[in-house]
């Protein structure tokens, strides 16, 4: 049984269609990404999953339960970190966590939770005095204080500095490693590529593609490029004889080879056979950014 | 560590939330100083002027401090119920505090209820402080009709709270809420006779003051025994004010948005 199962979800606000026939399922233990530009319907989708909004059509199930009908049960199992949900300015970290822990049947040990999120020393600090990264950690802690089976993180790293983003990524991986299934909503390519096992690319309320990060990249642009520097007496056209190679060009010392399949192996074996010492050997491949543009026709962070 | 416990009761969630909100209120210097302490400080300060402690014919043979004590009370209660409460609720909505709570098994209505409870308690504390200190320091007699005074204070505070929640319900954001609530506060003070004594207000304003929250006239009548020239009997004033409170509360409940 999937942890989350969404079938043909539809949601409109007045005339505007926010979610248009979205289906996906999240398997136990994975980090499932919902990736798309702002306004693509990502947050509405997770709000329906969390039972905060009724769906207009379609079905949502969380661990076999209906988030609207079995509201209380789902809320004990699903931890939600909402985009831009702040806390009262003068509330202390420890007070917030203890209060939220008291709302649940089987809460986590709040001391250990603060410890694992690296904010144990901020227990007595008021919310307004926390840094952006610390606020996000507290937000994660509040989503995890119920000991959830699945946690939803919505735009976790928006507004954080690069170091805090990377630290937060490590935390998300730790959460998954502790046995919690994670749904990660983001509009950052690097974040999705780094963390997610599978990604649903959402655009204008629809799922444009659903695959692993590598799968998404491969389906849009399977061509690879290998570049290296070689001595002038090396004839790059010997590479073109290999079936993996589509083209080989040279400008000065720089050789650029394009092709498919196991291109890197093809190139290195030719170089070894020819006793050529290649320097600065690099594989260039298209990344999720390119894949996203190919799938949706626009840049995700625009 | 898992400590499997019974299903949390809504009452225990409410008490926990109220305790947290009370703690937060103690960290708001403005609400504490202006809402709870200012009425007493003002009355004692004015009472330090000998002329205001002399019986005067324009106060019906009473002293200024006797007639102004209920006004001081309204000043503080108004700050708590009509200013602090709506701006706190509106900021909770704007910040997503209510939205976040709606992802837990506890409805954000619990937070609203807790906030109302804490504000009522603070208003009561402010009143006790004022009645006791004006009695002990200025010899202002404690309310001559304690039951009526308590009822008037309870209904008056309830009607202010209902208006405060209504402001939070209609205000689009925290800034708008604080603007609206300031205007409402000033209006209530004016009609209640805090700026100008009732007997110099135009007739219709004085009549209005008998029934507009928080019932300044009734507080005065039940405290010092001076009816201030009120036309309506006390119980009718009380009933009308309770009606205002219920209407405002019903409207607030209809219009309140959690996000």
From TrEMBL, chain A:
The keyword Transport applies. GO terms for molecular function: ATP binding; ATP hydrolysis activity. GO terms for cellular component: plasma membrane. The keyword Nucleotide-binding applies. Keywords: Antibiotic resistance, ATP-binding, Cell membrane, Membrane, Nucleotide-binding, Translocase, Transport. Residues 4-229 form the ABC transporter domain. It is a peripheral membrane protein. This is ABC-2 type transport system ATP-binding protein. It comes from Nocardiopsis algeriensis.
């Amino acid at each position: 049984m999937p942890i989350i199962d969404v079938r043909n979800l539809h949601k409109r606000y007045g005339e505007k269609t926010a979610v248009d026939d979205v289906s996906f399922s999240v398997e136990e233990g994975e980090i499932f990404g919902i990736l798309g530009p702002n306004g693509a319907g990502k947050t509405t989708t997770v709000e329906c999953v969390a039972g905060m909004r009724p769906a207009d059509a379609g079905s949502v199930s969380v661990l076999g339960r209906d988030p609207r009908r079995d509201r209380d049960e789902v809320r004990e199992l699903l931890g939600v970190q909402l985009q831009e949900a702040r806390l009262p300015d003068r509330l202390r970290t420890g007070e917030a966590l203890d209060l939220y822990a008291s709302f649940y049947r089987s809460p986590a040990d709040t001391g250990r939770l603060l410890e694992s999120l690296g904010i144990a020393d901020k227990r007595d600090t008021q919310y307004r005095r926390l840094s952006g990264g610390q606020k996000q950690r507290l937000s994660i802690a509040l989503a995890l204080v119920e000991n959830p089976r699945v946690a939803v993180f919505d735009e976790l790293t928006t507004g954080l500095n690069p170091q805090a983003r990377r630290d937060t990524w490590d935390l998300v991986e730790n959460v998954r490693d502790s046995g919690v299934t994670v749904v990660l909503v983001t509009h950052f390519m690097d974040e999705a590529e780094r963390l997610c096992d599978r990604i649903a690319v959402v655009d204008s309320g629809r799922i444009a593609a659903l695959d692993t990060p590598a799968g998404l990249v491969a389906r849009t642009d399977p061509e690879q490029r290998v570049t290296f520097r070689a001595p002038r007496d090396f004839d790059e056209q010997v590479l073109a004889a290999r079936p993996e190679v589509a083209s080989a060009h040279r400008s000065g010392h720089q050789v650029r080879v394009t092709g498919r399949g196991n291109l890197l192996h093809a190139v290195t074996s030719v170089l070894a056979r020819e006793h050529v010492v290649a320097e600065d050997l690099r594989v260039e491949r298209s990344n999720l950014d390119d894949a996203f543009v190919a799938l949706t026709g626009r840049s995700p962070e625009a | 560590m898992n400590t499997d416990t019974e299903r949390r009761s809504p009452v225990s969630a409410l008490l926990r939330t109220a305790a947290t909100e009370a703690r937060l209120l103690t960290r708001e210097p403005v609400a504490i100083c202006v809402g709870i302490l200012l009425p007493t400080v003002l009355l004692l300060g004015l009472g330090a002027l000998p002329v205001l402690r002399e019986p005067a014919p324009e106060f019906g043979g009473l002293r200024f401090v006797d007639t102004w004590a209920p006004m001081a009370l309204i000043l503080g209660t108004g700050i708590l119920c009509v200013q602090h409460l709506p701006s706190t609720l509106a900021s909770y909505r704007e910040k997503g505090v209510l939205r976040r709570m709606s992802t837990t098994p506890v409805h954000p209505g619990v937070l609203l209820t807790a906030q109302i409870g804490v504000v009522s308690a603070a208003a009561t504390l402010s009143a006790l402080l004022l009645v006791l200190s004006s009695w002990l320091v200025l010899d202002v007699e404690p309310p001559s009709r304690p039951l009526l005074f308590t009822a008037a204070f309870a209904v008056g505070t309830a009607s202010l709270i209902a208006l405060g929640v209504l402001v939070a319900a209609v205000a689009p954001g925290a800034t708008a809420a604080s603007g609206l609530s300031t205007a409402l506060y000033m209006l209530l003070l004016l009609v209640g006779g805090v700026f100008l004594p009732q007997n110099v207000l135009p007739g219709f304003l004085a009549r209005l003051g008998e029934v507009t929250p928080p019932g300044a006239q009734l507080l005065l009548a039940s405290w010092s025994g001076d009816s201030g020239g009120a036309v309506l009997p006390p119980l009718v004033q009380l009933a009308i004010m309770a009606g205002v409170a219920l209407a405002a509360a019903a409207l607030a409940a209809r219009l309140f948005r959690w996000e």
